[in-house]
């Protein structure tokens, strides 16, 4: 009996090497690239003994190494320590958590905000909890929504319609299948990270009004980068109708965590029922204090956003002059097209090995096969000379060997 018990796990575990080998054969195996970012040289990191330039970071404004954020986190760590000591309801709610949630709610013109450990958790936990609470609700989800949104919807087993990306006619046809009194929720993003395109937020809200639907908009890639005070596409448009607005700290704000802003009662319900909120350790107060400083810098003026978009325009001009294919999107994201799973990996290796430049290859399932790419970012600290050197290196690396 003892021998059988010890042998069984070994047999069961054999499935994993086989599945990993299948991923490798299909070119889908993910390899991590260890890089330690350098606060003193923004845009650079150490990789082993080498120093490399990083051109694919989501740190859109370069705030994660900003001296004021670094100082705020160090000072708070000295005063409060390195961890929160528990979940939000077990000694993990600091004064900074409360202040930050109050500021976030006001920023988005909502009654309440709730902080989560990441943007993924914010989406998954909020959606799955809200949807489960409303009997017979139907969810309408954009086909290119982030996996966190998709999984939050799937978790509930609710009835759903996945409409083609930004297709308002298809969305309206799906909404029209249900009466005005039937509960509905439209889930979409403001900026889609793989193509860098922006959704028609106002038109979607018009449909929501017409068909009596709630709305949940993920502003992850717009927070800090779009809007007069960086509150996202909704702020840029003066659009206050979305029921729920999700955002993150781990990109343009420069720290870690995510949040959802919306009606007080609904988010108080999420606070009281979402397992991923209740049963997890709260983010440290030092991280939240750094986030407050990042929010200060994002809100105090648009100089960083202007420099970011100046760099985007410069990069696009340089790519165009070099004959390099890219998606000319509305946002700060610049997808450079390198079709072919093996080709995009090969070009990435050449950039790293020959030029000390790191850009991660993006392939299926993040994007459809045949549309592989790099997603290039150019934070405000990038200089025209650096951009020119990057484009020259990219052109050489794209050339046949």
TrEMBL record:
This protein's UniProt keywords: Acyltransferase, Transferase
Catalytic activity: 6-carboxyhexanoyl-[ACP] + L-alanine + H(+) = (8S)-8-amino-7-oxononanoate + holo-[ACP] + CO2
Cofactor (UniProt): pyridoxal 5'-phosphate
EC number: 2.3.1.47
An example Gene Ontology molecular-function term: 5-aminolevulinate synthase activity
Superkingdom of origin organism: Bacteria
GO biological process annotation, one example: tetrapyrrole biosynthetic process
Family: Belongs to the class-II pyridoxal-phosphate-dependent aminotransferase family.
NCBIfam families: 5aminolev_synth (TIGR01821)
Name of the protein described by the UniProt record: 8-amino-7-oxononanoate synthase
